[in-house]
Amino acid sequence: MNCNILIVDDDKSFLELLSRFFKNKNFIVYSAENVKEALKIISTKKVDIILSDVEIPGINGYEFLKELKQSGKYHDIPFVLMSGKKITEIDLLEGYEKGTDDYLIKPFSFHVMFAKIKTILKNKKLCAETRPIKISNLEIHEESKKVICSKKEVKLTKKEYELLLVLSKNKNKVFSQEQLLNLVWDKNYSDPHTVETHISSLRKKLKCISKKIKNVSGYGYKLED
To answer: Which of 42, 123, 164, 199 has its CA 20 to 30 A from that of 4?
Structure first.
């Protein structure tokens, strides 16, 4: 989705995991480890939605939410709270009473989290259009699953499309056959010729970028920018 998200969490490793996840979903990601940093970002950047932990040092997530909702400038930014502690019904009610759009309890599924955030953004009519992935004369439209090569739609199989998506989202990165099998096929699938066959098929179908799909001898495959 073509959206800007601000993630606030003092757990650096979890913050990095979330940031990477949303970047892979084509979000522009801003991150902060405390509310002071978050407020600075909000004052200088366009933020479509905020995902904030409750237990952050200094001003906690509840107070951060309350401050934004009481402000005249930022009160309409959608806000989702996260909590890692064993919360009670009172904690949940406090979040909703202060204006949170949803509440996530750690550990949670990133895919469920993403579904919730997409629903919030859709209901508030924010960032409805997904920015297509563009490489040379190729366009990949993730929501519609359309692939356009030199202004003509190309029909790919499900696995061809998923393989192309992995390569296009990681331009210039070399993937071994084993890595691609794990990412696109089942982890127990072990026939390396499958990757070779699908790479060959992509080259034939996608003439506009066929020369950019490289075989790196001894290492694997990559898609050049």
So the answer is: 164
What is the dotted CATH code of the domain comprising 4-123?
A: 3.40.50.2300
Percent of the chain with pLDDT over 90: 58
Least confident of 87-91, 140-144, 218-222: 87-91
**Euclidean distance between CA atoms 89 and 183, whole angstroms:** 39
* Claim: this prediction has a pTM higher than 0.90: no
Listing DSSP states for 122-182 in one string gives HHTT-S-SPPPEEETTEEEETTTTEEEETTEE----HHHHHHHHHHHTTTT--B-HHHHHH
* Candidates 3.40.50.150, 1.10.1040.10, 1.10.260.40, 1.10.10.10; CATH matching 133-223: 1.10.10.10
Which pLDDT score is estimated for 128?
Answer: 56
